[in-house]
Write a structure and sequence with these properties.
CATH superfamily of the largest domain: Gcn5-related N-acetyltransferase (GNAT)
Number of helices: 8
Number of domains: 2
Distance between the termini: 42 Å
Helix content: 25-40%
Strand content: 25-35%
Number of strands: 11
CATH class of the largest domain: Alpha Beta
Order of helices and strands: HHEEEHHEEHHEEEHEHEE
Largest sheet: 11 strands, mixed
Shape: elongated
CATH architecture of the largest domain: 3-Layer(aba) Sandwich
Structural class: alpha+beta
Length: 296
């Protein structure tokens, strides 16, 4: 189904005229922190000081890893057990929150076996959304449609995994070229009414504005449902697309696999092995049963 011009015009008018949508920075920060506190799997709140919480159910990172999320110069940190928590607490105590997602700092202070990230975390207020022209070109198709599966099968599997497009719960917003879909975007419904954006463009169709165009349509869909769009990225090109749409980079996320030392910190030997940030699957909303911390 092609987006109808009259419908799109009405949606944009609703977004741009809504005072409720004019969420300022403190509102974005509060909503983003509420999300990650809920995913921590233990009572925890963002703080400028390092306070490591033990949580075997943390969704800030893969199982058995240490998860660190920084939002607006305050952080939360989870570890899978007491020994790891003590090691991390001893090593990182006294650091400013923004330094906690610096790979070089972590490698110098911790026995890091493996590292995912860091990835920037950006969020969008409805009043700051820069809708892209040309959305009449965007076709909306079901997320599990054959056409989308065919598009994904022709892309490098690493790019598909990094984009997260195969996991979206929204419809897919696509732009077609002569040989089929050239770009697609959508979002995965996360807890706390967050829409986690995914965008992917076929290599031959890049640098044509398709990422901005399809993402713009997906964002419109999310905002009209009261959701907070989230954009997580490592690549500079992806971050530029997000900024062009009005996203604010509020923080970062990193996951580290740490060698725990009973009794605390020891001397670090060698540097951690880095790899590209990978998506780790969130459970479906009805499978989440995590204790929620109070919103700061």
């Amino acid at each position: 189904m092609i987006l109808e011009m009259t419908l799109v015009a009405g949606l944009v008018g609703q977004l741009s005229s809504s005072e409720d949508g004019m969420v300022q920075l403190p509102g974005l920060v509060a909503r983003a922190r509420t999300l990650w506190e809920g995913l921590a799997g233990a009572p925890i709140a963002f703080d400028s000081a390092v306070r490591v919480a033990v949580s075997r159910q943390s969704l800030l990172c893969p199982p058995g890893w240490v998860g660190i999320v920084v939002i607006d110069r305050e952080a939360i940190v989870t570890a899978p057990d007491q020994d790891t928590a003590r090691t991390v607490q001893d090593a990182l105590a006294g650091l400013p929150a923004p330094a906690l997602t610096d790979a070089a700092v972590l490698g110098a202070r911790l026995p890091v076996l493996e590292l995912l990230g860091p990835a920037t975390l950006a969020y969008l207020a409805a009043g700051e959304f820069r809708r892209q022209p040309g959305q009449e070109m965007v076709e909306v198709i079901p997320a599990r449609s054959f056409a989308l599966r065919q598009f994904l099968s022709a892309i490098d599997p690493m790019d598909v995994e990094e984009s997260g497009l195969a996991e979206i719960t929204s419809p897919a917003f696509t732009v077609r070229a002569q040989r089929g879909i050239a770009a697609a975007a959508g979002y995965h419904d996360w807890p706390a009414q967050v829409a986690h954006l995914s965008v992917l463009t076929a290599a031959p169709a890049r640098e044509r504005g398709y990422a901005r165009l399809t993402a713009s349509a997906a964002i419109t869909h999310a905002l009209l449902r009261g959701k907070l769009p989230q954009w997580r990225a490592q690549a500079l090109a992806s971050r530029r697309v997000a900024r062009s749409l009005g996203f604010r980079e509020l923080g970062a996320q990193v996951s580290i696999h740490v060698q725990a030392w009973p009794g605390g910190q020891r001397e670090i030997e060698g540097a951690p092995r880095e790899r590209d940030y990978e998506e780790f699957a969130l459970p479906k909303n009805d499978e989440l049963a995590l204790p929620r911390a109070e919103t700061p």
